[in-house]
Design goal:
The chain is α+β, with helices and mostly antiparallel strands. It has one domain (about 5-150). A hairpin with a 2-residue loop joins β6 and β7 (about 140-150). It has helices at about 5-15, 45-50, 55-60, 65-75, 115-120; strands spanning about 35-40, 80-85, 85-90, 100-105, 105-110, 130-135, 140-150. Strands 1, 2, 3, 4, 5, 6 and 7 form a seven-stranded mixed beta sheet that branches.
């Protein structure tokens, strides 16, 4: 299970917000500022292979099949990264693998514990930096997330 962000980790993401007032000349204009990381989480391969428990993410799909495909993608897949927004998918793949979101055209995101954490915290509609493993099986491209960052562009 991925722990929630603590106050100490939030201070690490937003050190300027806790440093007190600053003079106007010390502020960076929004157009030149780098994107801020609002939340971040990563998991190891074992946790990434655990399928989500939430019914809305699993739908009518099989948790056993989802977990087995996640393990296969992690073992055989190639490194993958993506920056953008997730799109809600139909979650009705013939393979019965739960994939409630797509990261880009034709890339199905397997519902694992990290996806469940994103959904619980309300980050699925945000701009994200995602990393994981990608594998194509029978013409379907599956991805298992191993980390995500919510960014503010």
């Amino acid at each position: 299970m991925v722990p929630a962000l603590s106050f100490a980790s939030m201070v690490a993401f937003f050190p300027a917000a806790y440093a007190g007032p600053q003079e106007a000349s010390a502020h960076v204009s929004p157009s030149t500022a780098a994107p801020a990381v609002l939340a971040s989480a990563s998991v190891d391969a074992t946790a990434a292979s655990h399928c989500a428990r939430a019914g809305e993410l699993m739908g009518s799909n099989c948790s056993y099949t989802t977990g087995m495909m996640a393990r296969r993608v992690l073992e055989e897949g190639q490194d993958w990264s993506f920056i953008g927004q997730l799109t809600g998918g139909a979650n009705n793949l013939v393979s019965m693998v739960a994939a409630p979101y797509t990261a880009s055209e034709g890339v199905h995101v397997i519902a694992n514990e990290l996806v469940e954490l994103m959904a619980v915290e309300g980050h699925t509609a945000a701009r994200l930096s995602l990393a994981g493993k990608l594998l194509e099986v029978d013409g379907v491209r599956y991805v298992v997330l191993t980390s995500f960052k919510v960014i503010n562009a």
